[in-house]
Write a structure and sequence with these properties.
The longest helix is centred in the first third of the chain and has 35 residues. This protein is 41% helix and 19% strand. It has 355 residues and is of the alpha/beta class. The chain has 9 helices and 14 strands.
């Protein structure tokens, strides 16, 4: 019995140690493994600007999911975004962070109290006191507008007050950011006379170059952007206008573009769609965009993040394995039928009289 208790303790400790190792891998180590596969982009000149592009984080709300496990789902999603953001900041050391809309999942339907809670969670997740230069554009989940939904003035005002009040317009007398709202068919252009002296960057939640129409014509005429960054589709793609060329960009590599030659020689416009950074969107490939601008040269890559659903599945598999293994082990130690049977037969043979 003493030896059996020792074995029981060893088995229990083994399961505990393996469980802790699995948790350490899934919750800590996996983010560093993902970072080790990212491509760094070195600056060659002094006028180098690094941009971290974040699309569709969609902080989970309270209304769409009211199940018993929804608090755990919100916690896990928030932590995943925070850990991914921390690794991306450490790796890129960006000068500017650009949020490409759908910051919140239920921003357009949230009450005033819920909205404050969602904003507080968002700022806690993407908090970094060293990097104060940021750009935010609203998405349809922030203010409405998806599939023709009504966009209220109150939704616009509260998003502007919470996110856009200290946003960047010019940077280092070289870059200029233009916020484009496809839902409202509107864009910012407060200093039109001096646009020609800047490298012009359009930021939009919804893609622009494939839509056509009066908004695109106005953007090309009034803004004439060198590059547009967008999100919304949760995909990683590159669009070149006026051609119909679409590039699905899912490789782990760096793309290089000469923005001046693209505009002046090819007479084309470039748009990069950044994938979602939230695993809750159901995409197998998720990440954050990383762009480096030097003069009119753009280098771009995606910082691909680990697939959280696979990691969560390992917890389910391990839990079932531990449960089944525990049941089998208890049956083997508590019910030694074969040992008893063999011992009984041996006893009968040993009791046979000798002549």
């Amino acid at each position: 019995m003493a030896s059996l208790r020792v074995v029981n303790r060893l088995v229990c400790r083994g399961f505990i140690v393996l469980t802790l190792l699995l948790m350490f891998f899934n919750e800590v180590l996996i983010y560093y493994i993902a970072q080790s596969r990212w491509h760094s982009i070195d600056c060659q000149h002094e006028n180098c600007t690094r941009l971290l592009l974040i699309a569709d984080p969609q902080i989970l709300g309270n209304s769409y999911d009211r199940s018993s496990h929804s608090p755990l789902a919100r916690y896990d999603s928030d932590r995943y975004l925070q850990k991914s953001f921390e690794r991306a900041i450490s790796f890129t050391q960006p000068h500017i962070i650009v949020f490409l809309g759908d910051l919140l999942d239920e921003g357009n339907i949230a009450t005033a109290q819920e909205y404050k809670q969602y904003v507080k969670r968002f700022k806690r997740i993407f908090q970094n006191k060293k990097i104060t230069k940021r750009v935010h554009v609203p998405g349809d989940n922030d203010i409405g507008g998806d599939n023709g939904d009504y966009i209220s003035n109150s939704n616009q005002r509260r998003f502007e007050n919470e996110f856009m009040s200290e946003d960047l317009f010019d940077y280092d007398n070289h870059l200029r950011f233009f916020k484009i709202n496809r839902m409202l068919l509107d864009f910012t252009n407060p200093d039109k006379d001096n646009n020609a002296d800047r490298l012009r960057i359009g930021v939009s939640h919804a893609p622009l170059l494939i839509g056509g129409g009066p908004l695109l014509r106005a953007i090309i005429t009034d803004l004439d952007p060198h590059i547009i960054f967008s999100g919304h589709w949760h995909e990683s793609r590159i669009f070149i206008y006026p051609s119909t060329k679409v590039i699905n960009f899912y490789e782990n590599a760096v793309r290089h573009f000469d923005l001046k030659a693209l505009k002046e020689q090819d007479h084309s416009y470039l748009e990069i769609m950044v994938p979602t950074c939230s695993y809750r969107m159901g995409k197998s490939k998720i990440g954050m965009g990383y762009a480096v601008l030097e003069d009119y040269n753009l280098s771009y890559t995606v910082l691909w993040q680990p697939n959280r659903f696979i990691l969560l599945f390992t917890y389910v598999f391990w839990g079932l394995f531990v449960l089944c293994g525990g049941i089998v082990y208890k049956m083997m130690t508590r019910c030694p039928f074969r040992v008893v049977k063999r011992h009984t037969q041996y006893s009968r043979v040993s009791n046979v009289p000798q002549f």
